[in-house]
Design goal:
Two copies of one chain form a homodimer. Chain A is α/β, with parallel strands linked by helices. Helices cover 43% and strands 15% of the residues of chain A. Chain A binds a DNA duplex through residues 10-12, 20-24, 26-27, 30, 33, 36-38, 41, 56-66.
DNA sequence: GTGAAAGCGCTAACAC
DNA sequence: GTGTTAGCGCTTTCAC
């Protein structure tokens, strides 16, 4: 007779082999209920389980207990270097707590996001980690109404009271602006991320606020908004900005935008940092190897994922959402793309 | 009475509302069995389902059908830029086929890998995509014995006959060596990836093979092996190599190693590409922005994930493993880190 | 074309 | 301490 490799042993098989009832076997195998069973039985059952290479069917358990020990993680684009570490940080904490992570990539598409939520709920995930939220996100709102424990990562929505873990954008922008002001820059350009995302809006607001406080030039012609966080948009808006203004420094809404901007500087024969200082945001891998190495705000993405998971786990355990928004500390990393402002006119026009 | 937001409607509820038996409702809702039900009933059931916002419980379905429509994806390190696109490519194909993806990050730890396989099997995944395999991987072998449909990505094992999708390492290395030879390089160094991984071994073999064929210098002092694919190891082995040899060009086992090497070149005041040409492998994001922009072999990681998923899907459908190993085309991308060899002695000693 | 009933593998309330 | 029983939500024979 062929050995039954594919079909694993069931609890009934284990019970039979140990000469006990399935119910007893279940108790013996579950660490929590194990105390209700005699030590000898526990040993026998465990031996039988081992002999049969018994693997509990968590699907069946989930059906009974109404908990799947699974959480859904929804990201806008896994190949974007800021989200992968977030997922990794989250998955690690989740795994250690016995949870599995189902991943969904929305490709920055609201329709796919809604679909992902649907699928995930169908799969009875116990909770959700969402990094794809737009400020006005109907799908996320319906999640709240559906009562699914959900924690937002990095991006938050405007009108929902969901817990959210993110980097401290105000602090990050403050460090960036102070750094530039300390170097003597007054005309500071700003290439904003999309303000349909909370990160884009909040960094832009913080920038304006800080410039107001520290007395920089708030000429609106010094600001341009990208439609997406991408190198291409950095290129496009960088050109627009430099076509009409002469900032001595530019802050970019994130590192991709900064990279696009660096390209524009090069194509216009403007040197960085001598002619224009540039500050990015996120501290993506390898931006320290660019030329010049990018001065940027380091955001602890992995920690964001980990912390969000802990909040979700607590929610799952207590049944009530815990903390609301928490901002993790960020830190400006000064590298080669920023330097003191040059004397007016000293070579700005090549 | 409080509205029952968290507990979704069940099939029984839908059936009741439509005035039919749950079995009938099930048939009406399932596209395959829908033909067995009168059109009027189908409409009534669908209406009821919609009204109750019915969401089928795929857990319960899985218990009955023995298929969870879930596949596990196991990667060694999600924050490594080569794996994220692979996962993304896989998840997209899988999602379109109605499957969900459970992700597991092994952190390059064999023990964690074994654990991940266990968990995933417990969760009754229909199949597995494994990108973390070592050449000698006991855990993967036991997967085969367990009969779990599994497709390997990028890295393959020595003695298992599992389907595997990867980049064509021989072709990649051939293009790299030919390029360098065409530029006049004869003393070509090689910073190998770990040969415990199939990619490390196969690229190293291909390198030696090609050098033999094209008549380059095969002095063993021109080769050094990294213990991991990392910038640090690139730095370490780069120093070792340059301490004892004077290659005019160096090929790195991957881009991280190349980045480490670039750092060593800088610290030794050797210019790239004037003094030493450098070739990487993988074409990670942003290596085109390094200085100099890295010449490297482009590997279609996202396509590897997608193709592996298709093979797995077919296996799941037909019940038999399809193709075995398939190599996807790779292409050398020539950028600024390689140039013609300089005259002997012309400035090599600063 | 539809209802009835069994059962996937497991857990938990209830006996004894 | 252990056996019994019911049932999680669904699919799928089998009747009719």
């Amino acid at each position: 007779m062929a050995s039954e490799v594919t079909t694993g042993a069931t609890l009934k098989d284990v019970a039979e082999r140990a000469g006990v009832h399935p119910g007893t076997a279940s108790r013996a195998l579950n660490p929590v209920t194990q105390g209700l069973v005699s030590e000898a039985t526990v040993r026998r059952v465990h031996a039988a389980a081992k002999a049969l290479a018994y693997r509990p069917n968590s699907i069946a358990r989930g059906l009974k207990t109404n908990r799947t020990m699974t959480v859904g993680i929804v990201v806008p684009d896994l190949s974007n270097p800021v989200f992968a570490p977030m997922v990794r940080g989250a998955a690690e904490v989740l795994t250690n707590a016995g949870y599995s992570s189902v991943i969904a990539d929305t490709d920055n598409d609201p329709a796919k996001e809604a679909e992902a939520f649907d699928t995930l709920r169908s799969r009875q995930v116990d909770g959700l980690l969402v990094a794809s939220a737009r400020r006005d996100d109907a799908a996320v709102r319906s999640l709240v109404e559906g009562g699914v424990p959900t924690v937002l990562l990095n991006r938050r929505t405007d009108r929902t009271a969901l817990p959210c873990v993110m980097g401290d954008d105000t602090s990050g922008m403050e460090q960036a602006v102070r750094h530039l002001r300390a170097l003597g820059h007054e005309r500071i350009g700003y290439l904003s991320g999309p303000t349909a995302l909370s990160t884009g809006l909040e960094r832009a607001r913080a920038f304006r606020q800080l410039m107001l406080e520290l007395g920089g030039d708030l000429d609106p012609s010094l600001t341009e908004e990208c439609m997406t966080y991408s190198v291409e948009e950095g290129t496009r808006t960088g050109r627009l900005l430099l076509d009409r203004a002469r900032p001595t420094a530019i802050i970019a809404g994130n590192d991709q935008i900064a990279v696009g901007l660096l390209g524009v500087l090069e194509e216009r024969r403007l040197r960085c940092p001598e002619d224009v200082s540039v500050v990015g945001y996120n501290d993506m891998p390898f931006v320290d190897k660019l030329s010049p190495p990018l001065t940027t705000v380091h955001v602890p993405h992995s920690a964001i994922g980990a912390e969000a998971s802990r909040i979700l786990l607590r929610w799952l355990q207590d049944g009530v959402p815990g903390s609301t928004t928490i901002s993790l500390g960020v830190e400006l990393v000064v590298r080669g793309s920023t330097s003191p402002v040059r004397e007016q006119g000293a070579g700005q026009e090549r």
